[in-house]
Amino acid sequence: MAERAATPAATSPRAGDAVGAAGAAGAVGIIGGGWAGMAAALELAQAGRVVQVFEAAPVLGGRARRVARRHPQVAGELDNGQHLLLGAYRHTLALMRRAGVDPDAALLRLPLQMAYADGWRLQAPRLPAPWHLVGMGLTARGLGWRERAALAQALSRLRAASDDDDAADTDGAGANIAGETVAAWLAQAPSSLRERLWFPLCVAALNTPAEQADARVFRRVLRDSLLAARGDSDMLVPRRDLSRLFPEAAAHAIVAAGGTVRTGAAVQAISQSPHGWLLQTHAGRQEVAQLVVATAPRQAARLLAQVPHGPHQAALQAAAAKLQAFDHVPIVTLYLNVGALRLPRPFLALDASAAAPGQFVFDRAALSTEPRASAAPDHDNVWSVVISAADDAAALPQAELARRVRAQLATQLAPWIAGAAHLADARGEFVIAERLATFRCIPGLARPGNDIGVPRLALAGDYTDGRDGAYGPYPATIEAATRSGSAAAALLQRERVPSAATA
């Protein structure tokens, strides 16, 4: 595949000339054009550094990107999965603004909610914190007073947790949750709250079943989103494709600052040099002064493990070993042609099981108020159904998976949405299985930091530990990726790199 480079005059960061072999003195190489890599690149470019981004895929965005494939019955730009951001993603939102993207236009902001088609509903009113959570409990539908009291107690306990609790791995009641799963931590919660609130939130946030998921990480997500400013709990649904949402906008800003962004440019190997790092690509070798490895864990492990023997071999092998130990979890998204059907709200939660695997359904017509980037028809007749922690669903034949999801929608929505019963017999779906979507977020998982103890090199990705950069620990989310990218950039900026005259 030929490498493509962005130019200031390009209309897309995929257009331009083939890359040359020579590197700019003092340049920083970024391997990986996902959200972490583009965050690092934007930080460095706006700090005055010469940045060179190498992305193997034809589209920027990594594991949160636009897909090029089309389906004749499923119109519009599609992503490799339906993503949902939170108002607490302050770092990501700030980076979007710095890249020239207005989050208010690019994202549909909804109050915190968990609503099912049968009328069971929790929704935070637009009140100042913490009264929005009080109001959510008082206005809940389908919950008895016991469940409301238990919800209030759980939120109070989360609010009582301090930074000292985070450091000690205890919750707001003093219970030690180190090594605890979410299911064990919430074993005493009413079953309706577990099955319709806490466990669905856990699977959506950590992409790990509650029976396996790290309670410490889940508690951190809940604290950061539910218990800060009211807007932090808002749910933000993308109105444009994920590549345009930040990575491609960041690419234009990087190019305007004098950097380069190349897609279709896989880095096959890296090695240390007297002046930094050598990168081997199809176009030849390129030297950079510093390097950010911002690929998915398996690719990062391979690059680090294969660095030729040198003084930092032990540190490289230790980081690679941590990454190789990760277990990966798929996410499956089904885009369904539903004709003229509409959901009563932008998205609904679904009661999920092996026979009915869908967890959330989004009505993309509710998200299409912004003009599309291409001339493709508006996606006003498409629903997207999300299945996280999709080990079983990803193993099914796609036709069987689609049949189960359509039957699930027909059964669960038909009593409440006119015409939904016909979904069981309808046709026209597009299934995307992201098989290495995230790492399995289990207790005791050893994760590398941004600093792995190798000069002039930083690691970036939604899988880094984060605590050495004062963020997290977080699950594999867009916010974790951008924070990791910025932390990697800050780490390299603190290094003293010789100038071209003294190198």
UniProtKB/TrEMBL annotation:
<dbReference type="GO" id="GO:0016491">
    <property type="term" value="F:oxidoreductase activity"/>
</dbReference>
<protein>
    <submittedName>
        <fullName>NAD(P)-binding protein</fullName>
    </submittedName>
</protein>
<feature type="domain" description="Amine oxidase">
    <location>
        <begin position="36"/>
        <end position="491"/>
    </location>
</feature>
<dbReference type="Pfam" id="PF01593">
    <property type="entry name" value="Amino_oxidase"/>
</dbReference>
<dbReference type="InterPro" id="IPR017830">
    <property type="entry name" value="SQase_HpnE"/>
</dbReference>
<dbReference type="InterPro" id="IPR002937">
    <property type="entry name" value="Amino_oxidase"/>
</dbReference>
<dbReference type="InterPro" id="IPR036188">
    <property type="entry name" value="FAD/NAD-bd_sf"/>
</dbReference>
<dbReference type="InterPro" id="IPR050464">
    <property type="entry name" value="Zeta_carotene_desat/Oxidored"/>
</dbReference>
